[in-house]
Amino acid sequence: xxxxxxxxxxxxxxxxxxxxxxxxxxxxxxxxxxxxxxxxxxxxxxxxxxxxxxxxxxxxxxxxxxxxxxxxxxxxxxxxxxxxxxxxxxxxxxxxxxxxxxxxxxxxxxxxxxxxxxxxxxxxxxxxxxxxxxxxxxxxxxxxxxxxxxxxxxxxxxxxxxxxxxxxxxxxxxxxxxxxxxxxxxxxxxxxxxxxxxxxxxxxxxxxxxxxxxxxxxxxxxxxxxxxxxxxxxxxxxxxxxxxxxxxxxxxxxxxxxxxxxxxxxxxxxxxxxxxxxxxxxxxxxxxxxxxxxxxxxxxxxxxxxxxxxxxxxxxxxxxxxxxxxxxxxxxxxxxxxxxxxxxxxxxxxxxxxxxxxxxxxxxxxxxxxxxxxxxxxxxxxxxxxxxxxxxxxxxxxxxxxxxxxxxxxxxxxxxxxxxxxxxxxxxxxxxxxxxxxxxxxxxxxxxxxxxxxxxxxxxxxxxxxxxxxxxxxxxxxxxxxxxxxxxxxxxxxxxxxxxxxxxxxxxxxxxxxxxxxxxxxxxxxxxxxxxxxxxxxxxxxxxxxxxxxxxxxxxxxxxxxxxxxxxxxxxxxxxxxxxxxxxxxxxxxxxxxxxxxxxxxxxxxxxxxxxxxxxxxxxxxxxxxxxxxxxxxxxxxxxxxxxxxxxxxxxxxxxxxxxxxxxxxxxxxxxxxxxxxxxxxxxxxxxxxxxxxxxxxxxxxxxxxxxxxxxxxxxxxxxxxxxxxxxxxxxxxxxxxxxxxxxxxxxxxxxxxxxxxxxxxxxxxxxxxxxxxxxxxxxxxxxxxxxxxxxxxxxxxxxxxxxxxxxxxxxxxxxxxxxxxxxxxxxxxxxxxxxxxxxxxxxxxxxxxxxxxxxxxxxxxxxxxxxxxxxxxxxxxxxxxxxxxxxxxxxxxxxxxxxxxxxxxxxxxxxxxxxxxxxxxxxxxxxxxxxxxxxxxxxxxxxxxxxxxxxxxxxxxxxxxxxxxxxxxxxxxxxxxxxxxxxxxxxxxxxxxxxxxxxxxxxxxxxxxxxxxxxxxxxxxxxxxxxxxxxxxxxxxxxxxxxxxxxxxxxxxxxxxxxxxxxxxxxxxxxxxxxxxxxxxxxxxxxxxxxxxxxxxxxxxxxxxxxxxxxxxxxxxxxxxxxxxxxxxxxxxxxxxxxxxxxxxxxxxxxxxxxxxxxxxxxxxxxxxxxxxxxxxxxxxxxxxxxxxxxxxxxxxxxxxxxxxxxxxxxxxxxxxxxxxxxxxxxxxxxxxxxxx
Length: 1238
What we know:
6-stranded antiparallel β-sheet, globular, 7-stranded mixed β-sheet, 1238 residues, disordered N terminus, single chain, 11% strand, Alpha-Beta Plaits, 47 helices, alpha+beta
């Protein structure tokens, strides 16, 4: 086994990297070139030493300049020793340094400024002074005058002028510093370097402390680039107007051109492709819905049980994406042709009386013609605009049955059909309906609700799926709750009760060796810095009370109050002695006496009973989990137990027995399986499996293999083609070459690992190397992987436990380490997410399709992407309405629909729509959008779908249908916020005469004037597609938001504020509404690792808590928001909550913002977020500003900042209008480049 690298993060891992053939050739050429340029490089080092004040530079600093100077990596051992006549290496107090030996006056000549061709016919002095600057660079008059004065000064030789020769600070000192920087940049290969590297030599070269500001101050000499993580400085005179080097260094002649070539196996590194062409894989990462689908999938599964059936079975889809690649609007399932108009589709023109087709376009076109011909008008203008012509079918009909139902079924469904029935994106409810809904939403208080406390796990056993269970989280509970009669008997006769537990923390003990039966006693240790509830275990047989260890933390937290308040004392003995002296020691302790005053039922007795019950639960829970068990092992067992207890109906009897058999495995087997399960895999070499906590890996593998948890291969007859490919990937490149040499196959030294694997597999499939399986197993020896049955069962349990794909067993680790702290809430479960196993299997199959889709996009397998889209579309279209329609008022838990297979397939289809639009297949995208709108009639995504449908119809050349879709979408109560704003603007743009003569009712509201403020700044870049950067008032670089903050703090009126966009608002909402977010509502909390209720982004959140929310917001309205904020901050600091960012915002800033905003505005904002968190949680203004008038009064302002080429999005415009309606002072700040006056 090769030695493990020192920087390896995990045992058994060794990362091997080698160059491709082309890269290796280029590297060899570069080394040869650098060796030939040894003299030139030595001159560069000599000149650098001549520039330094003490003629000495540290080698540790020169390393930073080595790549830019063209030095080889080993220049310290080669180049520095090969020229003793120029410099030598000396030892200093700061480390080894390079010291100048010979001053060469021939080299002490500064760079000459390039000659400027002024293009004059007669060469004569200019009448006015000129400053040559780059194109597009505008400077203020004062800055321009300074540079002219600077250029008039005599040149300073940086070699012959030391720092002491010039006054500091002065313009002469700046002249010398610019000369030094200019000389250093002139030595660089590409006439550029990082500013950070230049600042390392500030003292050696005598450069000013504010070096970067000096460089920025001289744009005629230097150009500062903001690309990359750190800024770079370029020598302006070294480049032409197009940014090309005028004189290339000899080192720069070597071009690194890594192309994707199958022969050499090099790697493509161009993010946007060669020659400006787009890279398909890079652009597909930006598809709408890609990130959301990846989060839904989470960690990709090793085995997909339904993959083969999904890819091979026939698809009952109305869309044939694999063959229809044209852009026509006709769809594949339409057997009928163009719909011909019947006689009833014709109407009479009110102007000329002629019969005309009843379509909107035909009517409007005919009317426009009649009016332009000055035909006698039979009706007034107002009557003409309000006239209903009857049939509104369009002449340009789409030859498909869905288009006929556009306004009747696609977009008009829902309880609200008019614009005035919605307010701010939320449906109005009558007072009587509110009362009935509040009564129906009261929390269940019936007797069949039982509350279960937690000690170390969650007990929520469900017998028939309908029993209501209330679970206190995140505290832990026992496996089996102590019976009440047994508890009462134990409390009455507590003296003499024996408790089996352990001694932990043996490394802190005074006595390492223990004897069986040794007596002991318990002693409180309140001064323990690790745990204030600590209880020491001391030896009772020794006169000096030697410390043997401590009780487990979980038990001590309940026994310590009983010992202090009630005087309980415990004595016991050792009942077993472990092999290792540092392992936990099993003991048995017995309660000796107790002082309990009061009668049963009083607070004193109830307090004692509560803590005693908790202690017994911890003891009972620890029986099957000794302290020697590793933490991740305990967490995995806890996960399995809770899922089996909560959802037994989702597993077959065989699956239950398989999961329960995990507890009977040995400690080593359990640990090894959990370790392998959390790794990527799927195959592992047994020789690389080394874990310190696993004592006997060989025995553990044999046990896991015998019980069906892992599959072990050590015989060549057990290998198939797919397994052989996976096993070959476990081999190193040298091992693959050895196999090729054994088979006498051609092997190029520069071949990549994948090329070697492909070569071996092709030879094996061709029948020329039948011994390949034997050779592979000779190299790998024993290989193991998790069986498909184990992976499927445990993936399901993990999914049921966390209810998402983003969390895994690492969530336990974050809690154990104290990195993550989850809020306290109660889990009241009255309805199962998956009522039957068939629902769960359908959900799992949908996740598989989503994973195949995601992997296919990574691999650019477009044919498989299209097949996944068709599979998802077929399932959506064939799903019964009850699975996708949640409009029934009786179903309060509509938020649980996101755990249905239809929801997952809708995400796949949405990503497919974005992919089809990317491929300009708008016809197919239109079909899928109609399918989504038909099937999901109560979904907040309908707004985005409607906007895309309208846009795609316009792309296809059907503006009338696009307008109809937009108009119908405005009648949909599920179209809200920015989507509603976008549709309104589309209606105004497309609905002009002759398409629509009647003006809509909303133009005045959508065209409202938003206040604007215009400021100017000095730009750094003016490139399209890049974020604008400016110089701030302090001369440092900043974005438009920081520039606006500086303006409002100074000229804008002394405002304080932060640039946070939605961050500070969601933090304020989370802190103020904390008790509402984590209130006792059924079915919204199901795991201990939730940071928000499941229904937060649905209408159910507000409806289920309406009375609580309104009473709480009334307190906010009355001015108690700051008090609520402070209380919530102090109680829950550091606790994870959706939207709350503890690190970014301080309590003082939050208090200032809340007090200046005022109660009415803040309560209105929180109400909108509570009603529709999904629609309003993004697009908020960039800046939140505040200022005080006196000690207690203040005002706030919200500002959306836009750069020179930026425009307001529809969501941002909707937010600004909403804030203005709520009483906020909102405006738009537009930043533009400053105009230079001459």
